Amino acid sequence: MRNEHALEDRIKRVNRQLDDLRAQKRDVVIRQILAQLDKNGITLKDLKEARAAGMKSQSKSAPGKRMVAPKYRHPDTGETWSGRGRAPRWLVAAELGGTSRNDYLIPA
């Protein structure tokens, strides 16, 4: 029971220290932002107006899926596979039959 109270007290102290560190970091960031605003002549009113006008922040969106050129072609059906993801059934069956995947490569 004693150890439990000691650990709880220790956790409270560490959490207070963590809160203090976060506050210090926050203060530094706020000072940097204010310095940038002053440097560029931007006021808080400008920021509020921009936000009200619907200016969106530039967020990094995930790049769209790119088309990948086919790497393998089935000689009879013309089906192709890019070499990415799961191999198509026709290629798996061919490999099980003893044919090499390289036999289906599309010449570059």
From TrEMBL:
Residues 53-84 are annotated as: Disordered. InterPro entries: H-NS_C_dom, H-NS_C_dom_sf. GO terms for molecular function: DNA binding. Keywords: Coiled coil, Cytoplasm, DNA-binding. Pfam families: Histone_HNS (PF00816). The keyword DNA-binding applies. Gene3D superfamilies: Histone-like protein H-NS, C-terminal domain. GO terms for cellular component: nucleoid. This is H-NS histone family protein. Residues 62-106 form the DNA-binding protein H-NS-like C-terminal domain. It is found in: Cytoplasm, Nucleoid. Residues 4-31 form a coiled coil. Belongs to the histone-like protein H-NS family. It comes from Achromobacter spanius.
